[in-house]
Amino acid sequence: MTHKIELLAAEIANLKASNTEEVEQLRIKYLGRKGIMNDLMEAFRSVAPEEKKVLGQKINALKQGLTQKINELKENVAVEANCGDAIDLTRTPYPIKLGTRHPLTIVKNEIVDIFARLGFTLAEGPEVEDDWHVYSSMNFADDHPARDMQDTFFIEARPDIILRSHTSSVQARVMETQKPPIRVICPGRVYRNEAISARAHCFFHQVEGLYIDTNVSFTDLKQVLLLFAQEMFGAETQIRLRPSYFPFTEPSAEMDISCHLCGGKGCSFCKHTGWVEILGCGMVDPAVLEANGINSKEYTGYAFGMGIERITNLKYQVKDLRMFSENDTRFLDEFKSAN
Ligand code: PHE
Fold first, then answer.
1. DSSP labels, 237-302
2. For residues 301 and 177, what is the distance between their CA atoms, to the nearest angstrom?
3. Residue 73's pLDDT band (cuts 50, 70, 90)
4. Ligand 1 centre and the CA of 72: distance in Å?
5. Domain ranges of the chain
6. pTM, whole model, 2 decimals?
7. Mind listing the pLDDT tens digit for each residue in 268-296?
8. Ligand 1 in contact with 282 (CB < 6 A)?
9. Quick check: CB of 285 below 6 Å from ligand 1?
10. How much distance in Å is there from the Cα of 333 to the middle of ligand 1?
11. Which of 8, 17, 235, 287 has its CA 20 to 30 A from that of 50?
12. Domain spanning 103-338: which CATH class is it, in words?
């Protein structure tokens, strides 16, 4: 009998169960009314009286060990079951919804990247500006009719503080803090008091470029803009410069690119001209250099400015400008692949 008890003790020590049901089956098998312990007690009855004391102790110890083991197994499966409810590490994760970059950000980054490769560094300035940086330093006389070109938002309490109507103000901020050579690209939001429609908005985005050094010529400007147009719209893109007027550049020009939708043959997008206007540019007026503390005898420079919405429309044919600021996720999702 002693041997049998020892065998059982070893067996009990190795008992395993993976759920409550299995624990219950083990309990019945060992401790149930017709269980192994019961058989053992039956056999104990016929043991010789002189052996009873020692064997009785052994059987008691075995029963105690068994009860303890069954309780342990019960606890273990309960803990495992609870953990399973809280976190299932094997479950596939919920799909994470990724956002997209705004199309204007995508295009802005692309423009800035192209000019960064040409050695332009990024410069930014405030959207709430003073009259000096937006107009006076850019050669707009107080009564200059050109001020009417851009319908300015004024801050009521301070007529000299305005929302910048073009990013040319950043040119002024760069010139007042840096010495030539200057080569900067300035992206940013600008504001104009215009009625909101499919073709106009009270705020939009521009990228301005400024290069000032000794011997900078119109040829340099043209070459850089050609390279930009071809990087942005494809190697077959052609450019065309038309004389224009800006107070801060002289001479000034507007640049068209060959319509990349019809390849210059003429379509409704380019109004059957084969060309679409994309930016304004020119040689920095010597008066602007002087107003900003740069010797115009020693240095010359060029500047250009373009609307990011315009470039984005050309690339992605967005028909209505309002789409850019409505934050309709269906519209934004369309640019997922461009991210
Ligand atoms: N600031 C001009 C505008 O807002 C664009 C421009 C920039 C033109 C630089 C020439 C040179 O329309």
1. --EEEEEEEETTEEEEEEEEEE-TTTTTS--TTTTTSSEEEEEEEEEEPHHHHHHTT--TTT-EEE
2. 16
3. confident
4. 81
5. 2-82, 103-338
6. 0.72
7. 888 999 999 999 999 999 999 999 999 99
8. yes
9. no
10. 32
11. 8
12. alpha beta
